[in-house]
Amino acid sequence: MRVQTHRAYKLRSILIACLVANILLSMLLIGGLSYYSMQSVLRNKVEKGVQLNVRQVAGEIGNAIQNLESAAKQMAISGTAAGRLKDYMASTGYAKVQNKQDLDDLLGSISYSNASLGLIGYFDPKNGEMLLSTQLARPDAQPDSFTALSAKGSLEVQGIHPSLYLYGSKQLVLSVIQPVQLQADSPRQAYAYAETNYNVVDQLLSDGRYGFPARYILADKQGRIVYSQLDAYPVGSQADIGFESVSDERTGLVLFHEASSEGWHLLLAVDPGFYRSELDQWLGRFIVFAALCLVISLAAALFVWRLIQSRLTLLRGEIESMADSHFEREHHPVRILEFDVLLLRFAKMRQRIGELLLQVEEKERRKRHLEVEKLKYQINPHFIHNTLNTIQWMARMSKQEDIFDMVAVFSRILQYNLSKEGDWVTVAEELEAIEDYMKLQRIRYNYQFRLEISLEDKLKEQRIPRFIVQPLVENAMYHGFTDQNGCVTVRVRREGAVHYAIEVSDDGIGMDSQALERLLEESDESSRKSGLGIGLSFVDRSIRTHFGEPYRLHAASSPGEGTTMSIILPIRSHEEEPT
């Protein structure tokens, strides 16, 4: 045999090269793709996070303004507070003191009911002074001088400004003012003023929630800035409010925008350089991770190679031992599932080969023995037939016609059973053998059983295995009747376009389902006690073996209604018929 030689490569070199190439290629592809896309990914991630925080801050500012509006309405519209203020302005002496005390109590209850409130009180624009307040107000307090952020009816929301509290002028607050009509027939009015405590604005405008510096800008409905933490966007200038987020080329900052339902706008300015710093940090971590993966991969490749090499050496030893005809070598597991499975199967194959060699030796020995038995088989039937013919003619000469007929029938049955023409016969041949069998039974036992056969002409030449109908007739005789009278009917008819049915029925006593099941499961050893010694289980196995699993023996019976055995078989053309 010609053997082609090619350059061989070591498995270790291939394994290490593949692992290293796989790691490097994966890292380069992932790193390159990540590097070029991470900037936009991080930018989108940061921008979405920032936008959500801006929306949250705008909502919190709106809640603070709603609390201020609620307090101002209680002070200006409530009949009790407004009425007390009118009484206070119109009274003198002790009544004025009493009304002031009542107003202080009302303002105190309003302030205590909302923890976010700071200074609240009434301002007299005519005299330019605070009439009443829950905290000490600055002497120069002018609540109506601050820039308006938004308006709702007569109520005005003022932008972020220094507090009017005497000792908190450096703290920033939000505030609202609401006119209070002092007299129905007089234009004179006062203002109800309410501002947040100084902690509210500090918490709302803190950049701690972002992780990097951020600056806020507040603008009114028209986009005019009323508060700014950046000199690049001064108060009074116009802000661009037609976007959700945009890069300002003038300042190099990214602006995030959120519009409130009341009409004012909140903007947040962020330096995009922080995006780049996060990307650089990611790139540094990625390079360290890639180098670590490469080192681990090299170590893993060497470990895997040593592991595989030792197992391959063991497998080579197993192959060499089998080549040396050592079929009884003991199998040792190596604690690696794939190799254990391979070695176990190899050990089983080696054992099987040894067994097959023994079987071949045994078959050769039996073959030599069968050659002798075959010669006996070829002689004995011939001797038996000659002997039967002699007995038959002796009976004829002695005018013993019954004996003559019985020997003739028995001779045909014996010839059918010992035929060397194969295991397959035609349906007609099987039915002829059944008729001979019934004749023999009638002569032996003087039975009066009737046999009725119905066979369609087109089905006569269909070939079936030997002895699949005869045991059914025998079963009807031995299990279907209690006396010597009865009728067994054999029908062979077409069943649809491509099948035909063989039915054997009797008009005997029948049986229940349990008895029928026991009969079908009866072993061939039990059947040998009577008749031909072929059980129904043999018939069922023979059908499934020759025609396939869908085809088998079917039985139906009821007590007192007889029993029917049926077989459905495929119609085969002459070319398809077995030999």
From TrEMBL:
It is an enzyme of class 2 (transferase). Residues 346-380 form a coiled coil. PROSITE patterns: HIS_KIN. It is a multi-pass membrane protein. Its main location: membrane. It catalyses: ATP + protein L-histidine = ADP + protein N-phospho-L-histidine. GO terms for molecular function: ATP binding; phosphorelay sensor kinase activity. Keywords: ATP-binding, Cell membrane, Coiled coil, Kinase, Membrane, Nucleotide-binding, Phosphoprotein, Transferase, Transmembrane, Transmembrane helix, Two-component regulatory system. The chain crosses the membrane at residues 12-36, 282-308. The keyword Mitochondrion does not apply. One of its GO terms (cellular component) is plasma membrane. Residues 468-573 form the Histidine kinase domain. SUPFAM superfamilies: ATPase domain of HSP90 chaperone/DNA topoisomerase II/histidine kinase. This is histidine kinase.
